[in-house]
């Protein structure tokens, strides 16, 4: 009985699905592979470019990776900062740069 049902399915399968079933499966597989390639290749390329840029930054000297800053400090009644005020501002700037992964290096000793 079991063999008869299997034989009947095999004989009726082409009549039900026609010859397009194999073509549909092949087309679905082709679309799946093309979609994977379309997503994976640009992602790998972006990762490679990021890695190359990071290597270029590591290879540069400290003079080429210097961060310059300028500030307009409002609320001052005079045009200069005292040593204490300058130290506070320097500490705030250093803390902000350290938070952004740009720590200050100590001044060069001469």
3D structure, described in words:
The protein has helices at residues 2-17, 20-59, 83-99. The model has no long low-confidence stretch (mean pLDDT 76). Helix content is 66%, strand content 0%. The protein contains 3 helices and no strands. The longest helix has 40 residues, at 20-59. The protein has one domain (17-99).
Structure annotation, total helices: 3
Q: Residue ranges: pLDDT <50 for 5 or more in a row?
A: none
| CA-based shape | rod-shaped
What share of the residues does DSSP label as strand, in percent?
under 5%
Instruction: Give the total of beta strands.
Output: 0
Along the chain, the helix and strand elements come as HHH
Largest sheet: none
Helix content: 55-70%
The radius of gyration computed from the alpha-carbon positions, rounded to a whole number of angstroms, is 34 Å
Label the structural class.
mainly alpha
Query: Mean pLDDT score, rounded?
Result: 76
How many domains, as an integer? 1
Distance between the termini: 98 Å
């Amino acid at each position: 009985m079991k063999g008869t049902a299997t034989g009947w399915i095999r004989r009726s399968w082409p009549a039900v699905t026609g010859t397009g079933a194999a073509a549909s499966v092949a087309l679905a597989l082709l679309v799946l592979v093309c979609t994977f390639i379309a997503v994976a290749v640009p992602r790998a390329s972006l990762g490679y470019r990021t890695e190359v840029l990071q290597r270029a930054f590591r290879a540069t000297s400290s003079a080429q990776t210097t961060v310059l800053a300028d500030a307009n400090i409002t609320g001052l009644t005079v045009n200069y900062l005292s040593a204490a005020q300058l130290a506070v501002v320097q500490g705030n700037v250093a803390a902000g740069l350290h938070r952004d992964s740009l720590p200050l290096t100590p001044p060069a000793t001469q």
